[in-house]
Structures are given as C-alpha cells and as structure tokens.
Amino acid sequence: MSKRLNREFYLLPRGEQRALILLSLLLILSLVLRITVGLLPDREPEGMEEFEREARLIIASLAQADSLRQSAAKSTSHASGYYNSSNLEKQAGPININLADSVQLLPLPGIGPVFAGRIIKYRNLLGGFVSVDQLGEVYGMPAETIQRIRNLVYVDSTLIRKIPIDSASFRDLLKHPYLEYEDVKALVQYRDFKGDISSINELRTNQILPDSTLNKIDGYFEYR
Prior knowledge:
11 helices, mainly alpha, rod-shaped, DNA polymerase, domain 1
C-alpha cells in the first residue's frame, strides 16, 4: 500500500507534491497544537484561528486543482474519441473540398492535420479541384484514404480560379502545378505570334502542349 502511495505521489506535478507536503506539515502542527492546548488552561493560542483558516484555504485549492485535472482528462478523452474513424464516417457529411477549411476536412476518415493542410495547399496551387480524383495528386495521400472519403466529398467547379490565358504573365502561368517551364514558354510564344487563343482545341490542333497536359489544364484556362 505504501509503495503504491509513494508511486502516485511522485507521479503528481511538482507543485502539487509541495502542496501536499505543506498540508501534511500543517495538519501535524495543528494536531500537536490541539494536544498542547488540551493540556493547558482554557486559553486559545494567538493566531490559531488564522492558522486554521489558511489550512482550509489550502485544502480547498487542492480540491479545485484535482477537479480541473479531472475535467482536462475528460476533455482529452472526448477529443480522442471524436477522431475515431468509425465515428467520423458517420458524422462527416458531403464536404465541398473547394470551399472547406482544415477544420472541416479533419472529420474525414484518414485525414489528419497534415493531410488537411496539404489538401488546402494543393487546392490553392491548382486554383481549385475539378475532380475528386485530383486528391490522388496530394503528396503522400494513400489511395485507400481517397476511396474511403470519395462518397463524403464533392467538387463545386464554379469555385475554380481560372487563368486568363490571353493576358496571364509568364510567371502566373508557371505557378500552376500542371505547367512546366517549357509548356509556359510554348504557350507564350504561340500567344505572341497568334494573338488571342480561342479554345483548348486550338492548342491541341496546333500541338502547342502535349495532350496529357492539355487534358489536365483544360478546366483552368479562361478564354475570351
């Protein structure tokens, strides 16, 4: 029993250890004083009332600290349960991944703070998602996770930030993750020679960019 009490004592924060030691000393001193008073004539020592009041305050403070610690433990336990994947799949409704912030993405199964941040960062680079399949391009995103959340998310393509292809600068075009330096160079040279670009088909017909790049970038260009 004494070993268990010693172990629990040393597991307490240093501040609470000191408070318990002080409280024990005060209680022992109080007991000694009461015994002493009982042996003396009917006369209460000076300061006894103040001493007892301080002892009561210390006991109340320790009780309050213990209550706060228990509340914090319950809060942590609740937070851990909230992110349980079985509960999340039930709680998460269809989420617009072109509008959601990281807090709204966290309830999705398999999406922690790291992946939530990466999704938003990649979304900003793209200018928005045109398909849920693009989540597979997020760095480190497991295919299993995408399958689990596929029915829990959707894409609103009207929120995509499009690039005005006829007026965008070389630098602005190069910022898009689907365009390499040579792609942007070819686009700008063709635009300078031809003028306005009417559609993706014009770029395809003239073989300005590879078909694989055009298929991905199509939803991000704005034509006049």
